[in-house]
Design brief:
By secondary structure, the protein is an alpha/beta fold. Helices cover 25% and strands 29% of the residues. The protein is built from nine helices and 17 strands. The strands form four sheets. Strands 3, 6, 7, 8, 9, 16 and 17 form a seven-stranded mixed β-sheet that branches. A six-stranded parallel β-sheet has the order 12-11-10-13-14-15, sandwiched between helices. α1 packs across α8, α3 packs across α4 and α3 crosses α7. The longest helix has 14 residues. It is globular and about 70 Å long.
């Protein structure tokens, strides 16, 4: 029997639509998944929505199950939680790096089981918390470190949440938006405006995706300190202040990107499983700041991309879409 699904596509700068999709019959070793929730990764998906993926990064930026090619049209996204409807894992709740689509067929190896301790509504954060785990592995914090996270968006707040319980560490979330103070308080970390942030940091994780944020991050470092750069700037060129105190303090800027596992003794599957285990902590619900129905995505994404609709993780609920199909 031919099964139809509906998928969200980026069509052009500021344009999107929901299209129908014909699903293949699952082969042996494959699973049919009914989507429960997806998450909008606002920073990355806004870049795709605006057509700001640099041509030399087209392959690097491809999502695992992307259809189409940059700049457009593309089916893009990677925070998907669903229920398996056929195969060995029937009835299990799973996370998959799949775009916004009502049903899909993928190899069972592409699915990660969501632990019973993690509600599916929260599990949409798995991909972002996986990025945070990788960043912390790259950062290699030590007990008692003085740490700042500059940029309290979805990724930065996820990093702060992972670091919040690090033994003896002083962790401060730094952001120009005073509303992020409430998020920091719920995560159990300090908060400061960039001009009032605590300096002499051993480590700063930068996730503001702004030139000003990177300058702030470098300014907060103690001698021999390190900035771990998590921001992705698309096709924008960023000026890095390498004069003044950069050399005299022997500072370091290093990149972190989730496409490579930061520990050679861990696999991609182990990293994702760890992220889902961490999500058993209800404090991560703080990072889900809004929700819409699947059919509303074409009108919601432009508002997310422009900042009109403030959000960390904006969750998309598919239950009404399934009820009407």
């Amino acid at each position: 029997m031919t099964r139809q699904a509906r998928a969200f596509w980026f069509n052009g700068s500021g344009k999107s639509e929901i299209r129908s999709a014909t699903l293949p019959e699952p082969a042996e070793g494959e699973a049919l998944v009914r989507t429960l929730f997806t998450g909008v990764s606002r920073g990355t998906e806004a870049l795709v929505f605006r057509g700001e993926v640099p041509e030399n990064q087209y392959e690097t930026m491809r999502a695992p199950f992307q259809e189409g090619d940059f700049p457009w049209p593309v089916k893009y996204g990677y925070l998907n939680v669903g229920v398996v409807e056929t195969g060995r894992l029937t009835g299990r709740t799973v996370f998959c790096l799949y775009p916004h689509q009502t049903h899909y067929v993928v190899p069972e190896s592409a699915l990660t089981l969501v632990p019973d301790t993690v509600p599916p509504e929260r599990a949409v954060l798995a991909g972002t918390v996986e990025t945070a785990v990788n960043a912390v592995w790259d950062a290699k914090p030590l007990i008692g470190d003085r740490i700042a996270v500059v940029g309290g968006g979805m990724v930065g707040s996820s990093v702060a949440a992972v670091l919040a319980k690090f033994p003896g560490a002083r962790v401060q979330l730094v952001d120009a938006d005073p509303a992020r103070a409430d998020i920091a308080a719920q995560l159990g970390v300090g908060f400061a405006d960039p001009k009032a942030a605590l300096g002499a940091c051993d480590l700063v994780v930068h996730a503001s995706a702004s030139e000003a944020g990177l300058e702030t991050a470098l300014g907060l470092l103690a001698p021999e300190g390190t900035v771990v750069e998590l921001s992705w700037y698309g096709d924008r060129r960023i000026s890095v202040p390498l004069g003044e105190f950069f050399h005299s303090r022997r500072l370091t800027v290093r990149s972190s990107q989730v496409g490579t596992v930061a520990r050679p003794d861990r696999t991609y599957a182990e990293r994702m499983a760890l992220a889902l285990d961490l999500l058993a902590d209800p404090v991560f619900d703080t990072l889900i700041t809004g929700e819409s129905h699947f059919d509303e995505l074409p009108s919601v994404l432009p508002r997310l991309a422009s900042g009109e609709l403030p959000a960390l993780c904006h969750r998309i609920d598919y239950r009404r879409a399934h009820a009407s199909s």
